[in-house]
Amino acid sequence: MPVSPSTDNLWIGKGVVTFQATGESAARDVGEVSEVEFSPSITKLDYFSSRSGVKQKAKSVIVERGGTVRLVMDEVTAENLALAIAGTITTNSAGDEIIEILATNATEGVLRITGTNEVGNQLDAEFLKVSFSPEGSVNFISDEWGNIEITGEVLVDGVSGFGTFTVRQQA
């Protein structure tokens, strides 16, 4: 990899997003995604010494770790919509996909992003356990391209941690 500082480290992110729900045999491509954003979060417990007139922070320890991942999916499919509204999908006799709203509490699974950008190093991400539950809104009428925005909690999978990022150097 180029050593910093180097303009070879500049990056314009692009990629393919797949989701494999727990219990499913294969991952599915969620289609066009215009934004993917990971936000790690930690909670600290601070200790302040009371030995003088003004308390002074003497120690700070991390007591919680987690995060969220936000997707803006540009393809309105039954699977993507069901993920956003905790729905289940059935197919009627005409072949239409019917989504029962709020039929589940959440959908958990593995979320992967495979970098495909041409500028800069490619960034891959694998979140081992993401829980998507209804949050936000679905806009049915607009003068802009429609999309579905969802946010999921990144959870520890109990064996391998939260997941990984891989930086692949462009040739």
Average pLDDT, to the nearest integer?
A: 94
Count every beta strand, where a strand is a DSSP E run of 2 or more residues.
10
Q: State Rg.
A: 20 Å
Largest sheet: number of strands, sense, barrel closure: 8 strands, antiparallel
Which strand-content bin applies to the residues? over 45%
Label the overall shape.
globular
> How much helix is in the residues?
under 10%
Unreliable spans: none
The tally of structural domains comes to 1
Helical segment count:
1
Order of helices and strands: EEEEHEEEEEE
Tell me the span between the first and last alpha carbons: 10 Å
Structure notes:
- The chain has one helix at 78-85; strands at residues 15-21, 28-29, 33-49, 56-73, 88-91, 97-100, 107-115, 122-132, 148-154, 163-168.
- With 171 residues, the chain is mainly beta.
- The chain has one domain (7-168).
- Strand 3 (33-49) and strand 4 form a beta hairpin.
- It is globular and about 75 Å long.
- The mean pLDDT is 94.
Give the topology:
Elements: E1 15-21, E2 28-29, E3 33-49, E4 56-73, H1 78-85, E5 88-91, E6 97-100, E7 107-115, E8 122-132, E9 148-154, E10 163-168
Antiparallel strand pairs: 1-2, 1-7, 3-4, 4-9, 5-6, 7-8, 8-9, 8-10
Task: State the gist of this model.
This protein is 5% helix and 50% strand.
Structural key phrases:
171 residues, mainly beta, eight-stranded antiparallel sheet, 10 strands, 5% helix
